């Protein structure tokens, strides 16, 4: 018992082979008044154990007829030797105790039952707050890249060469990126494959939820059957939606968009299998990974200088 953390709920039910007796004078903290007959040495050991472990003798807290307190019966011998003990802090969870007459758990021992009401708290999923990111990947689109280049040039006052003050320049680049490209929500996406989701599935799930609420309020067989039928329908709708989405994906595999979808799903599954939230590294021109803050900043500066001078280089070639 001493090895069990105090915060854990403990219930002991056993044949202690002792009589705690009627009355509780001097022992009110661990037992009630409703025992059987007089206390003996073994019963005193049970009470001492309860005190030492801060437990209560559940049998003695509920006023019952003596017939429903007797746990052992053999011929003319009728006594109470089987007890249920729990931590005193959990006594409030015990709503009833009784001995089931006519049911024998073991020879000459009657079945001892207590009713506990346990509060189950629903665990809330902790939300993982992530840093909002600028959608730099939009620079792959020519129109976004062109707009970003123009807005950044305006922010720099029409200069082509970036200022020497990197901190100022970096902040101007970030601010322009946020305005032109936008930022992510900062919320982590759920690890659910719902790319196949459609309106039919959504409607079916909504109807199922309403049916569940209806059944919870009125537990009739009709409401139960309605809820079960909608459960089966949702499963069918989900299965059909997934199959349809996969069929469309297979049909598009020969196209560029289909390849992108496939790679996107593969990357998502790869990320789901890793405990990595964010990556703060970048590669240089030769593909080597840069990890230090200074080298990363230097590479970003080189990148944006190349981006800003791209138009001028094209003009010189012409």
TrEMBL record:
| Coiled-coil residues | 210-244
State which residue ranges cross the membrane: none
Q: Does the keyword Coiled coil apply?
A: yes
- Classification via InterPro entries: Endo/exonu/phosph_ase_sf, Swc5/CFDP1/2
Q: Has the keyword Transmembrane been applied to this entry?
A: no
Report keywords, A-Z.
Coiled coil
* Protein's UniProt name: Craniofacial development protein 2-like
Per the UniProt record, the source organism is: Hemibagrus guttatus
The opening ranks of the lineage are: Eukaryota, Metazoa, Chordata, Craniata, Vertebrata
């Amino acid at each position: 018992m001493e090895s069990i953390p105090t915060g854990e709920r403990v219930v002991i039910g056993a044949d202690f082979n002792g009589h705690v007796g009627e009355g509780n004078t001097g022992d009110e903290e661990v037992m009630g008044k409703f025992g059987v007959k007089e206390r003996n040495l073994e019963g005193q050991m049970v009470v001492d154990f309860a005190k030492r472990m801060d437990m209560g003798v559940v049998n003695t807290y509920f006023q019952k007829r003596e017939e429903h307190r007797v746990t052992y019966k053999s011929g003319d011998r009728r006594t109470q030797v089987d007890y249920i003990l729990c931590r005193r802090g959990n006594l409030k969870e015990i709503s009833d105790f009784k001995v089931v007459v006519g049911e024998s758990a073991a020879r000459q021992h009657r079945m001892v039952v207590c009713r506990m009401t346990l509060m189950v708290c629903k665990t809330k999923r902790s939300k993982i707050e992530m840093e909002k990111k600028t959608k730099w990947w939009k620079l792959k689109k020519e129109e976004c890249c062109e707009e970003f280049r123009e807005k950044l040039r305006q922010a720099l006052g029409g200069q082509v060469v970036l200022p020497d003050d990197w901190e100022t320049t970096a902040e101007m680049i970030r601010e322009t990126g946020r305005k032109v490209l936008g930022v992510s929500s900062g919320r982590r996406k759920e690890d659910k494959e719902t790319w196949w989701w459609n309106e039919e599935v959504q409607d079916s799930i909504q109807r199922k939820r309403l049916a569940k609420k209806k059944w919870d309020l009125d537990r009739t067989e009709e409401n139960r059957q309605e809820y079960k039928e909608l459960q089966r329908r949702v499963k069918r709708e989900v299965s059909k939606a997934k199959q349809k989405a996969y069929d469309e994906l297979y049909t598009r595999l020969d196209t560029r968009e289909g390849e992108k979808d496939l790679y996107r799903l593969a990357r998502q599954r790869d990320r789901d299998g890793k405990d990595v939230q964010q990556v703060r590294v970048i590669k240089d021109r030769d593909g080597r990974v840069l990890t230090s803050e200074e080298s990363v900043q230097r590479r970003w500066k080189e990148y944006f200088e190349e981006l800003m001078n791209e138009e001028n280089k094209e003009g010189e070639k012409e």
